[in-house]
Amino acid sequence: MTAPDRIPSEPAGSERARDGATRLDWRVWLAIAFLVILPMPPLVYNGYALLLGCLGIIAMARTFNIRFSSASARQATVLFACLWVPIAISWFDAADSYRAGTSGALYIRFLPMALFLCLALDRLSASVRLRQAVALVCTFYVVDAGWQGLTGHNIIGNPAVGPQLTGMFYPKLQLGVVLAVLTPVILAEIEARSKSHPAWWLAVVPLAVVVALTLHRNSWVVFALALFGFIALRVAERRWRIRGKTLAWVAGITLVFSVVAIQHLSFKVRLFDTVAAALVEHEQLEIQLGQRPDIWRAAFNMYQANWLNGVGVRGFRGVYPDYAVADDYWRGQDQPVSPAHPHQLVLEVAAETGTLGLLGYVLVIAIAIASYFRAPSANRHHAGPWLLAALLLLWPLNINKAFYGFFIATFFWWVLAVYVATLHAQTGIREPAD
Predict the structure, then answer these.
(1) Residues with Cβ < 8 Å from 59, sequence gap 6 or more?
(2) Concatenated DSSP letters for 280-335?
(3) d(Cα 286, Cα 295) in Å, to the nearest integer?
(4) Whole-prediction pTM
(5) Rounded Cα gap, residues 313 and 12, in angstroms
(6) Which of 412, 411, 413, 404 is nearest to 340 (CA)?
(7) Which residues contact 260 (CB under 8 A, 6 or more apart)?
(8) pLDDT grade, residue 434 (50/70/90)?
(9) Residue 86: which of 396, 320, 355, 300 has the closest Cα?
(10) 114, 156, 206, 285: which has the fewest C-beta neighbours closer than 10 Å?
(11) Distances from the Cα of 278 to the Cαs of 273, 284, 289, in angstroms?
């Protein structure tokens, strides 16, 4: 592991440095507060996203020409258009025009929120402070969930959901998703601190254990992708070499999961039943996948019948019976059920916003990755973990939360906006040496 590039800083005693540091503080704190608020009910974190959006509108209105000329604001606007335009077009012949229109209108709040974050994190020093705060908040979530696993309740009295740890996110099963997605950012902070003492890498162990004990298989996969993605990122940057230290780290994480699998009955059953079902019986695999294959078939049928702009955002549930297969598991219940979304990201985009939505989805990934390679090396070093986090939320095989739903949409735009802001942030003003 070699030392990362040093980033030039302005003289610490300069008036500009003092003013800049003061000016950034309150906005960075607002950006940090989002992650603290995320476990709260949807009305709270959506309201907070709206607040950030209002602040973004005010800031842009005051100095529009200056602010909108920034590369981060322009890129955030382009990325937003890639996802929002197909959402808007899906409204014209949506199966549920009211819900599609409402969802499309509410989605607009993410653009000014992203612009606010771009303004708040316009210097790398601010992004570094945010990364440190994210690692601290996630540490709290890990400790809180660990306490829940030991005592049956977290620090505010929330119980686990059966054997699954939920921590502050009770009763929703969102803890594993958040920790797994933010793992690259946490690893970046551990990497920075490990320069003073290598023992900081031991902090990965409780993180891995808590993600494992959420018993959330999608989070396990995302966590594994985050680990190997971070290693690949640092190797590509020529900051790490595939030698003993890196291999020992991977072996250590594998050992943690192995020990948890052996010692924790629920984890062992969930892991090995899934593997066995995948290798032995098709019917058992469908059971382990939560009977999702029937939902996927219906989603594909929707896309085929509405290939251009889909059935409309959040309209999947309403038209599900029309596209379900004859022996559909969900429609065959004593009280027929219509799933709320396809439980597969690409199929959700295809079914609800059609080919236009798929095109926008691909463009977001392509633009985000392409801009990373064009950025200065110092910006790439700090922005890379946030790019990985955004790509993990865009991972095509994601089978968990609805991409157009409140939770993932709000979380995604916060992560993506921080990435864009960090990628285009200016160096200087007491930039800490990583």
Answers:
(1) 67, 115, 116, 119
(2) S-HHHHHHHTTTHHHHHHHHHHHHHHTTTT-S-TT-HHHHHHHH--TT-TTTTSSS
(3) 11
(4) 0.86
(5) 50
(6) 404
(7) 209, 212, 213, 267
(8) very low
(9) 355
(10) 156
(11) 9, 8, 10
